[in-house]
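just leaving the lab so this will be short. what follows is a protein written twice so to speak, once as letters and once as structure tokens for the fold. can you read through it and tell me how you think this chain folds. anything you notice is useful, everything is just below:
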Amino acid sequence: MTSPRSEAQDDVASDLVSGDGGDGVLLDDQSLTGLEDSALGYSLFPGLKVDLSGSTSYIYDSNTNQTPVPNSASLFAFTLGAAVKSGKEDKRGGFYGIDYIGQAFVYTDSADDLGRDPYEHFFGGNVGVNGAKTKVRLDFDYHRNNGNAIQWDRIERETRRSASHDYNLNFGVTRDLFRGDLEFGAGYTLRDFDAGTGLNDGENTYTDIAWLTTPSFAPKSAIGLGVRTGTDNYDGQSSQDYVTPSLRWRYKVSGKTSLHHSLGYEFRSIDAPGAQDSENVVFNGGIDWAATSKTRMGLSYYRNVQPSYALNGQDSTLSGVALDVANRLPGHFLLTTRLGYENADYFSSAVGGVAGRNDDFVRLSMDLSRPLNLGGKLRGEWAIFFHHNRNDSSQAPFEFEQNITGVRFGFAY
């Protein structure tokens, strides 16, 4: 199973020093770690790497509180990060990684922070072992979200600028079988919102098992069946259990193009007398395409159901698509563009409840960066960026429009 944490971590790192993940190496891959002569016949934790990164940004935000009546603000954002990694995640043997990212937000007018904590912390890690036929991986992270961040994956339509403590834990095992794989995953997610935000805390647990086989007539593809089961426990809501059988498909067209898709039918039950159970078509998938040596594109899409953090006794069907394009331009410039759309259709899950909210959420992000040569292993970058976020809702209190512009200077070692 691929953990969602790895993608989130990569996004955060790219926001610190866009265009590179930081390859500063204190010990190269051939350096001894004391575990080269393991009984398994291969190194457990080879090649320790330590990366340090940081950035300073000046930002203008046209609607820092993301409300129908905007409140503009100017601020500085300071970021420091450190990552320790050992081993290669795609090679046989052991690997682990630990990441920390800290941010501080300083508003030119202190009243514009609206009482939000200026400090934000993200801590995450992973550990795993890749054997000849079995792969095991554990991912975990904690995020102290103070509601100030502007990164693409931190802008949220429903919870908006609300502060929270966020926890994620994911475990996965893959076993190679004849002409296929058996995959198992389990995880836990918790969002603990600060008092006074008006939002419901929510937690989710899940297990997932799938079997995929490679047909002899299609050696580049894998197709199979899977089942995901889980429980959503949100304050203000009755407990919800779900079971989702699904058809899964992966296809690697070439070294430059790959596709994946999962199509399922969800049975969701509400643990309350007379509550409205639901059945839903759900899916997710994506396409990754290296169009040229200088252009990379990614397209993802999804449809799922989850309880509402904001509205008691209501669930929402979320349908969305996102496009990510990176272009290397002349003069060592890198242009990264992201475009996303999500529709949220709310429906009642409570006895006699009525729901009438429907949202259309559009996001655009553009980042133009260029590396700086600082000498030795110290690398730098400057960038200018623009973000546009707009939520149109059938209920006026949930609408907002936001434009963010800024300049960033960063380094990586």
